[in-house]
Amino acid sequence: MVPDGSVKDQEASSSSSPPAAAIARAARPPRPVSFKTKRIVWHPLKHRRFRVGATKTMVEASSSAQAVRGARDQAVRGAREVGEATTAAAAMGSPKEDEKGHICGGWKSEDGSLYCGYSSLRGRRASMEDFYDMRSSKMGAKNINLFGVFDGHGGSCAAEYLKEHLFENLLKHPSFITDTKTAISESYTKTDSDFLDAETNIHREDGSTASTAIFVGNHLYVANVGDSRAVISKAGKAIALSDDHKPDRSDERERIENAGGVVTFSGTWRVGGVLAMSRAFGDRLLKPFVVAEPEIQGTRNR
């Protein structure tokens, strides 16, 4: 038997000093922070590397998200000669820019028969990689109006080149009026070839889509290269005038594989494990699998 007083003294003594296990834990050095590493995957045709499991949010270009560089000069530019055609554009007021770099404005043809508006906002890129172009011309009795959105990737060079040269080459084509679809197709592939010849740095990854609307008199031609989109509104209904050029399209995949390329899945379907679209201007290291041949839809504008 232990006296009551002794038991109380022992309990008080044990509660006033920490247990031995707690003392041992406190004496341990802090554990180093561990970082999970992600495996780097390379593909024989790949000129970029990506991390497995990483995701990238891509915003598709549309008529409401267009490039800004050169917008002010293009909107207020007067007549300029392009081959046998004279372009004439009149601005509906100067473009306005807010504190976030958002630029918007309007445009109308010289005869006042056609109006359009544009809006441009750079996303998370360090610099703007997208451009647009608007031109109004006259060839004989035909009024010509051209609109284009060029969504760049891997840099801004390809999209900027399209802004400066694509419609210029098209207007110079000898069959532009008599065989517009052939002129569009040949002018687009020529512009792609010219860009690759002009770009001296063979390791550049610049590429660009092109979504264009071309009015020849009362005929509308929509030519698309890449995954930018064109939509028309009729009787309040949205009607697609272009199909995205994606590697998972059966016809696109067959074309790529017949040319000796491969289509792989890395979060999404990609040409050579790299590019998530099957047609584009530029992208030198993915030629001839990624082509700039446009798909063209035509309609009569009533």
3D structure, described in words:
The chain is α+β, with helices and mostly antiparallel strands and 302 residues long. The chain has one domain: PPM-type phosphatase domain (Phosphatase 2c, domain 1, 4-Layer Sandwich). Helix content is 24%, strand content 29%. It has six helices and 19 strands. The strands form six sheets. Strands 9, 10, 11, 12, 13, 18 and 19 form a seven-stranded antiparallel sheet that branches. Strands 5, 6, 7 and 8 form a four-stranded antiparallel sheet that branches. Strands 1-2 form a two-stranded antiparallel ribbon. Helix 4 packs across helix 5. Keywords: Hydrolase, Magnesium, Manganese, Metal-binding, Protein phosphatase. Its cofactor is Mn(2+); Mg(2+).
Give the arrangement of secondary structure elements.
Elements: H1 4-16, H2 20-27, E1 40-41, E2 50-51, H3 71-76, E3 80-82, E4 85-87, E5 89-91, E6 96-97, E7 103-109, E8 115-120, E9 130-139, E10 142-153, H4 157-172, H5 180-198, E11 207-208, E12 210-216, E13 219-225, E14 231-234, E15 237-240, H6 250-258, E16 263-265, E17 269-271, E18 281-282, E19 295-300
Antiparallel strand pairs: 1-2, 3-4, 5-7, 6-7, 7-8, 9-10, 10-11, 10-12, 11-18, 12-13, 13-19, 14-15, 16-17
Helix pairs in contact: 4-5
> H/E order of the elements?
HHEEHEEEEEEEEHHEEEEEHEEEE
The assigned structural class equals alpha+beta
Poorly predicted spans: 5-16, 33-92
Helix segment tally: 6
Mean pLDDT: 75
